[in-house]
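Re: that chain you flagged

S.,

Sorry for the slow reply, it's been a week of failed gels. I finally had a moment to sit down with the sequence you sent. For the record, here it is as I used it:
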Amino acid sequence: MNKAVRDIFLTKKNSMYTTKKCRFLESKRLNTKNKISLLIRTSITISIIGISLFLLSFGENVEENTKKIYSCISLISSITLLVLSFYDSSLNRQGKSEKFHKNATAISKISSEYELALSEENINIDDIKKIITKYENFIDSSDLNHSSETYKIFVMYENKKCSTFIFSIWEYIISMIAYILPAIIIYSFIAYDFFYN
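Prediction finished late last night. Pasting the structure tokens below so you have them in one place:
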């Protein structure tokens, strides 16, 4: 086998490895985002229940102005929770996470088959071509594609960059701002009222 053909085969091997790792990583990231969303929505639900219980238990001893503030916070929290729940439902992160994981597992099997064929003493070029075609057909038939952020994290991880964790956390914060910001505002109102009224 000449060097040009071997280089093509090795390039395809790296492509399979990268795609497989990125799809597994995308699955993990979507699952993590889903957990963050669930945590924030649960905390907002707890705040609504907490405010309701507070007003029911101590309503008679609470100033009318404070009651209005807490009722307003409860209403904002309920609307926020409803909007986030609809938004979550439309994104279907959990379903996509499972699809990416299955996709990566299928690529992993093709990749293993490819590596095994390449490691043979007498490499059968026709077998290699068939596996490459199988991989390319699978990619073409798949409706999934990992995000550019996932690829950046993968490259940082492969190059052992120390900023991988920081980049990943920062990307989570940016992508989950629709959840984090309302929660911060709601709890800021509660904290302000608690300490200053």
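What I noticed first: The two ends are 81 Å apart (CA to CA).

Talk soon,
D.
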